[in-house]
Write the structure tokens for this entry.
Amino acid sequence: MPLTAQHKTGNFDCGEEALNIWLRETALSNQQKYYTSSYVITDNRQQVIAYYALCTSMIYKQDMPRRLRDNAAPRELPAILLARLGVDKAFQKQRLGGYLLLDAFKRTAQAAQLSAAQVLITHPIHSQAESFYLKHGFLKLRGEKEALFIPLPVITAILKQS
């Protein structure tokens, strides 16, 4: 569900202070200003136990692997950025990250129909996060340091299987 002012973020702790602080201090303001869209899972007291954030972005065509490039495509390709994803430590190892990612895939597919997007990209915060994304079908993006992407056709195929 979309983040609202009624959701409690103060006790959220995913183990990554940058993600904790962003949720507590920036997420709602960014949502209200249309910089990012944040989605949350809450407990029955409206305490956020997991979240992710999306926004629009772009990538350069030459950063795509050659086998995935469309020569007719413009130099810059529209993308959706998975800007943040975190699961509270008390709820980790319960597959909530995968659930959030699947929800992000659904919203990316919807956004692509409304405004165009070729890929979902992310910048993993550390190697453990990178492994998570690679396990879920992301590929390394050339040219962008530590960026990963998953093409929209792959997202669509995953959604059809789920």
